[in-house]
Amino acid sequence: MCRNITTLRGLEPPVTAQEIEAAAVQFVRKVSGVSSGPLLESTSFREAVASVALATEQLLRELPPRQRPPRVTPASRRHVAR
Question: Cα–Cα distance between 57 and 34 in angstroms, integer?
């Protein structure tokens, strides 16, 4: 659905909480059609991001390790502070 969301499972170094939240924001923005303005700061938007991030963290924790890590360039992960 959203081509800009990076695969987070099996990254080296391991995915950060900031990367999970960034992916959650991208997903909620795409699904909701909200890309700017005051709706990005609304309670419902922030709760949706938190729910998606929590579900993502749980999913990544419970899935078995990948046999081959995905090929992700450092540039695609650079935008998130570590």
Answer: 23
